[in-house]
Design a protein that fits this description.
It is built from six helices and nine strands. The strands form two sheets. It has a seven-stranded mixed beta sheet with strand order 5-4-3-6-7-9-8, sandwiched between helices. Helix 5 links the parallel strand 6 and strand 7.
Length: 246
């Protein structure tokens, strides 16, 4: 069962507070010249990458390639934007189920109208912290830039753990501005926060660095972690498909 964030759980809170502080300090990407729009919920700044822009599409595809979704899997996408990545994953998963959550009711309505398939591909609203999903209902959770805009990242990581099956995997994609030493401390903050939420086997599986503007470089970072599996039970990603299409 996922661990709950408690007042006394200072390592988790400190690690997640470190992530939030890094965000407020401007260490995450601020692509003012590449299709940026303000995020009107949770926090007003920094802006997020417009989910319709070419750069966001490239990272979505890269994330799906790294995750290697499989047939029959149940997938949850946190901060899915216009749900383009949800639809692409659903097509790759064949007879699987894909669900995305976004804080904008307008985006959710548009995505549902354009991409929704009842019982197979769904998009839901959420409050930016608590996931509107049942316990242990997904094989994988894929988060796209969700932590940087979350006021309670420790709670969100606990929520991701809660909705994953034992042995299920989480993939986190975030942008990070490269400032001397910051990239290392941020990676360690990720690891500490994930372990505090009950995840294990945390790895940085991909890092792509590039020059964004005159202020310095950026890195796109994908981190993977796994829920603990009870002895004798195969990982969620290794179990043979046994569920019919929804």
């Amino acid at each position: 069962m996922p661990r709950q964030a408690e007042e006394g759980n200072t390592p988790v809170r400190d690690a997640c507070r470190g992530i939030s502080t890094t965000l407020r300090a401007g260490c995450w990407v601020q692509l003012r010249h590449v299709c940026c729009v303000p995020h009107r919920a949770v926090r007003q700044t920094p802006p997020v990458v417009d989910p319709t822009c070419e750069l966001r599409r490239d990272w979505d595809l890269l994330l799906l390639d790294v995750a290697q979704v499989r047939a029959w899997e149940r997938l949850l996408f946190v901060a899915c934007g216009d749900a383009w990545i949800v639809e692409e994953a659903w097509r790759r998963a064949l007879k699987g189920y894909a669900c995305g959550v976004d804080i904008s009711p307008q985006r959710v309505a548009r995505a549902t109208a354009l991409r929704g398939v009842p019982g197979k591909l769904e998009v839901k609203s959420w409050d930016g912290t608590h996931l509107p999903c049942q316990d242990r209902s997904f094989d994988r959770v894929i988060s796209t830039f969700a932590l940087r805009d979350c006021a309670e990242p420790a709670t969100l990581l606990n929520e991701m753990h809660r909705v994953l099956q034992p042995g299920g995997e989480i993939y986190l994609l975030e942008f990070q501005r490269l400032i001397g030493g910051t990239e290392n401390s941020t990676t360690e903050a990720f690891r500490a926060a994930l372990e505090g939420a009950g995840f294990q086997d945390t790895h940085e599986v991909l890092r792509r660095e590039f020059q964004a503007d005159s202020s310095g470089g950026l890195a796109g970072v994908i981190v993977r972690a796994r829920c603990a599996t009870p002895p004798g039970l195969p990982h969620a990603t290794e179990r043979a498909p046994a569920r019919p299409a929804a």
